[in-house]
């Protein structure tokens, strides 16, 4: 993805023109036109101006790495609230909260699986990741990096390789009841040897099993059954941060 593509995306998303940018930023119409056509790329100064104008990350705008949306500043450095499970909430100027949770990237899957054997313990050695939320939630939340393309069907519902999701743990005492898969179709499923991201499309309460489904229609991703006794942790996905715009 080139700079011109990221700029075109922002122009369409915000509904602005090269003329409007020129009037608002003093970057000339000709310069903006050259950016859009891919004839030239902006210098650091104009990257900073455009990133501030569109309220996006400079790194993403310049190179396509990182995430498009830039973090909003929080009020003060101390958490507004720290929950019993250790989640930190920071109050934001727009009335929302920055929720800071343990982050499990693909490279840390093995360590996290080891930690999950103690259901009350999660190492403080894990990195943390922030999500913007409307309200304070209780319970245990985690951020997981998605591995592979089994949940990618090129739709807006896709969970693509490298995406980061916010997931809320469902306590084991609730597993023998009907799971709310209509409200939360996508789940992170922690097993003894791997971490999966799947949809749960059916559940047999008597047998204690679930059927997992992938969004990717490729024949290699067929539905399969799991015994809940073989599952270490179930987390329903409540938010996604895409690795692409």
Automatic annotation (TrEMBL):
Keyword Transcription regulation: yes
SMART domains: HTH_XRE
CDD domains: HTH_XRE (cd00093)
Residue ranges of every copy of the HTH cro/C1-type domain listed in the record: 27-61
InterPro entries according to UniProt: Cro/C1-type_HTH (IPR001387), Lambda_DNA-bd_dom_sf (IPR010982), LexA/Signal_pep-like_sf (IPR036286)
An annotated Gene Ontology molecular function: DNA binding
Protein name from the UniProt record: HTH cro/C1-type domain-containing protein
Keywords: DNA-binding, Transcription, Transcription regulation
Protein's organism: uncultured Dysgonomonas sp
């Amino acid at each position: 993805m080139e700079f011109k593509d990221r700029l075109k995306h922002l122009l369409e998303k915000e509904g602005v023109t090269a003329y409007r940018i020129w009037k608002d930023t003093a970057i000339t119409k000709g310069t903006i036109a050259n950016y859009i056509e891919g004839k030239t790329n902006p210098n650091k100064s104009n990257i900073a101006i455009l990133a501030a104008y569109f309220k996006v990350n400079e790194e993403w705008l310049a190179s396509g790495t990182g995430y498009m949306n830039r973090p909003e500043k929080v009020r003060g450095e101390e958490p507004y609230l720290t929950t019993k499970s250790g989640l930190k909430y920071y109050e934001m100027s727009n009335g929302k909260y920055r929720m800071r949770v343990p982050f499990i990237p693909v490279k840390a899957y093995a360590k996290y699986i080891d930690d999950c054997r103690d259901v009350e313990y999660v190492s403080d050695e894990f990195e943390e990741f922030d999500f913007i939320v409307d309200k304070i939630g209780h319970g245990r939340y985690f951020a997981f990096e998605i591995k592979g393309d089994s949940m990618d069907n090129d739709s807006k519902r896709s969970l693509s390789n490298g995406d980061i999701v916010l997931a809320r743990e469902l306590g084991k005492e609730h597993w023998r009841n009907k799971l709310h898969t209509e409200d939360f179709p996508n789940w992170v499923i922690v097993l003894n040897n791997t971490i999966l991201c799947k949809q749960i499309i059916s559940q047999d309460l008597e047998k204690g099993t679930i059927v997992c489904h992938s969004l990717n229609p490729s024949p290699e991703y067929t539905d399969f059954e799991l015994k809940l006794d073989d599952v270490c942790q179930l987390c329903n996905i409540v938010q996604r941060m895409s690795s692409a715009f």
